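so the lab meeting is tmrw and i was supposed to have these ready like two days ago... anyway. pasting both below. for each one the top line is the aa sequence and the line under it is the structure tokens. i havent really looked at them closely yet so no promises
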Amino acid sequence: MKTSLRPGVLLRNATVIVLTLIWVIPTYLVVVNAMTPVHSYTGSPVWWPAGFAFFDNVVQGWVAGQFGWPFLNSLLYALVGAGVAVLLASMAAFGLVIMPVRRTKLWFWLIYAGTLLPLQVFALPLYQASVQLGIYDTRTILIIIYIALCIPFAFFVTRNFLITIPSEIGQAAKLDGAGWWRMFVSVFLPLLRPALVAAFVFQFIYIWNELFFGISLTISPENQPVMAALASLQTQTSALSQPAILATAVVVSAPAIIVFLVFQRFFVTGLTSNL
């Protein structure tokens, strides 16, 4: 069967290949250089493996950067921040879409507007407020900040998914005598599962990779997230080799990749519903 090579198809395929290479080449270089033995590394990027010392490099970087607490902190921030934000956002979406609330567009934009401003706008007020409240350089301030940052996008995803659910389901639950809370917990929350998982995965990855507030609102290793510890690894330990730093970076990035791969089915379904 002969396939016609139309200019549009060629352009599309070429664009996909170029975009793929833009992402694949840096990732390939990171992995290859992370595997390179320290004694074989010359300071220039290595394009082909000159040996396999990945685990030795990880141990060297992990010990030098003391990643134990930062890793656990990021796990706490990502799980609690994303989980609470998605729950609160789904409740807000339920209120606007299902419950008889006036000025729904106004409430929508008031909640969603949180994603429209750059994070740097909030840095100084949050720093001053955290100092006055005595929660600067604590886990509490980062959990609060991450929950607040994640609510707008999670609200956007769950609200768009709720719109696709037939209104007859809510009316039937109401005729059966279900109150708003029971209707939310027993009827709509199970139906929202793809959107909830998609929003949770997206926000988990965001919090795991977040750096700005991690270095702005915490300074001690006991409270800093793992990306803040990774950023300071090179400056604090100038004698540490580049393969060790790259190998540690690969390991600390693994949880976000694993979460995405495990839940990618829900991720795609939840984000493509009525978007």
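ok protien two:
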Amino acid sequence: MSSVRTTAKAPVEVPKEQRPGPGRARKNWQSRERITASLMALPSLIPLVLFALLPVAYVVFLSFTRYNGVTSPQWIGLVNYQQMLKDGAWWQSVLITLIFALGQIVIGLPLSLFLATLLNSGLKGMAVFRGIFFLPYVISIAVIGVVFYFLLRPVNGVINGILQALSIISTDVDWLGSQGTALASLILVGVWSTFGINLIFFLVGLQTVPKDLLESAQLDGANALQQFRHITLPLLAPITRVVVVLSIVFSLRSFDLVKTLTDGGPAGQTSVMYTYLFDYFFGTDRGSQYGYASALAVGASIIAAIVSLVYMGLARDRTVRSQAAGTEEGTR
């Protein structure tokens, strides 16, 4: 032992200037933590890549090909996209989709906000109404479409029977037989099926409004409408933006309701983007044109993204202007 002690070398002392400082050690630790976290998250990304990104990439690839599902895809470049730009029926379906989305937002959001305000007022029995209002959202959209198809049919339809009993109409109306009434029916049924979830969002936002702020405004002489306009609405702006964006996305990608209620009829006049491209995938008349249908799917996704980004840009600009106006008013 004594020999070991005598022959053991003293530890080499690292020069002070070469020692890792606290900041450097922290950066190395953070780097190791990021690498470890990335490796641990990697398995969870595999399903995303396999079931989301790869199918999207395959659809994009098919959009540049001519493919009927039997023979091998044939690369044709931008031919499908050139055909899409010249397809008048496609752009008609895009217009119908935008009208359908706008109608749902214009009617559905004020209705949801109004009902959420009532539920937030603390009246008795509101818990029951909250459940009733939310019930349509948990029902399958396809089932809703089928049910309303029978309710709206011209012969022995429940809607016609009720309106005739109330003396609002004198004869049966074919609600799904013309473009105007069919599109209006689609919008109203769409509002009925989705206003419950928007109501919940607004209700959550209303419950975050400070009550002392409303009480202060009331002491200053502000009535209920002024409190709602100048306090509640501005504080609901963030949740309103979320609700509008979600409504835009869900409306632009509508398929189930249109397919089951009108199937794009009459004569394709209520066909939206996804029912139109569905016919090129699986329809009996246009089916098995997978290349062109894929190009339409890519186009529909781009249109939905553009509309959402435009709204988000406008909403952000409005928020910036409101904050600037508030700051300017505060400095006066």
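from a quick look at the 2nd one: Confidence is low (pLDDT under 50) at residues 1-6. The chain has 14 helices and two strands. will dig more after coffe
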